[in-house]
Design goal:
Strands 1-2 form a two-stranded antiparallel ribbon. By secondary structure, the chain is mainly α. The N and C termini lie far apart (about 30 Å). It has a single domain, classed as Winged helix-like DNA-binding domain superfamily/Winged helix DNA-binding domain (Arc Repressor Mutant, subunit A, Orthogonal Bundle). Helix 1 crosses helix 3. The protein is built from three helices and two strands; from the N terminus they run ββααα.
Length: about 80
């Protein structure tokens, strides 16, 4: 699954932060919930607009960003 169909960046929305499907829920919001130990089910209860695939897309997005940063530092 590619995050590219689920993660959007709009300059006027949430300060241009990466959001889920044009919603006002950022990738950071989801990652923060996961880091706090919340399960996917808890996150879906807190954010009923989300789908399980959105959470996986947020993780994929974060992993890709980390890969890109690693590649920059390795150069």
């Amino acid at each position: 699954m590619s995050y590219k169909s689920r993660i959007t960046v709009e300059p006027g929305k949430r300060g241009g932060k990466p959001c889920i499907r044009g919603l006002r829920i950022t990738v950071y919001d989801i990652l923060e919930q996961l880091a706090a130990g919340n399960s996917i089910d808890v996150i879906l209860d807190d954010f009923p607009e989300l789908q399980p695939e959105d959470i996986l897309a947020a993780l994929d997005f974060a992993a890709d960003r980390e890969r890109q940063i690693g590649e920059l530092h390795a150069s």
